[in-house]
Amino acid sequence: MTSWIIRPAVERTEREQADLARILQRCDSLRIVDRLVSDFAGMLRQRQGRHLDTWINQAQASGVAQLAGFAAGLLKDYEAVRNGLTLPWSSGAVEGNVCILKAIMRQMYGERTSTSSSAASSSPSNHQAPKD
How far is CA 97 from CA 89, 92, 111, 121, in A? Predict the structure, then answer.
């Protein structure tokens, strides 16, 4: 059900859309979550940061603790969030490269420690002569 709510309605199958509609009819909280998640995703996709204040107010008043908490987190770095929802620049490529570099460094660190430990255990100075 989470994937149904997260995906845009146009990407859901007819069956998924019907099942979600049936569930949302029965649960006010999920109906609120569905609307607010959809609205936020629309702001992301269409760079409509001008609607952020309205969305935050609705999330805080929704009665859904997780949405209110998410809205409170957005307020902590409001300018960055609003800019991210408005401006065309993206740090995605940079973040992707940072992620790759970190993975390479982890691999190198892991190889060095395994090589060091195996070399240390096989060095003659670490082996003791058998006791009689």
Answer: 16, 9, 21, 36
| Burial of 84 (C-beta count, 10 Å sphere; 0-12/13-18/19+) | middle
Q: Phi-psi bin for 47: left (phi > 0), alpha (psi -120 to 50), beta?
A: left
Contact call for residues 85 and 49 (beta carbons, < 8 A)? yes
Check residue 77 and report its DSSP letter. T
Pairwise CA distance, residues 84 & 44, whole Å: 8
Whole-number pLDDT of residue 94: 67
* Predicted TM-score (pTM) of this structure: 0.62
**Cα–Cα distances in Å, from 95 out to 76, 91, 100, 101?**
21, 6, 9, 10
Phi, psi (rounded to 5 degrees) for 8: -60, 150
Question: Mean pLDDT per 10-residue run, the chain (132 residues)?
Answer: 82 90 92 92 88 95 94 92 84 72 80 48 47 52
What whole-number distance in Å separates Cα of residue 71 and Cα of residue 24?
22
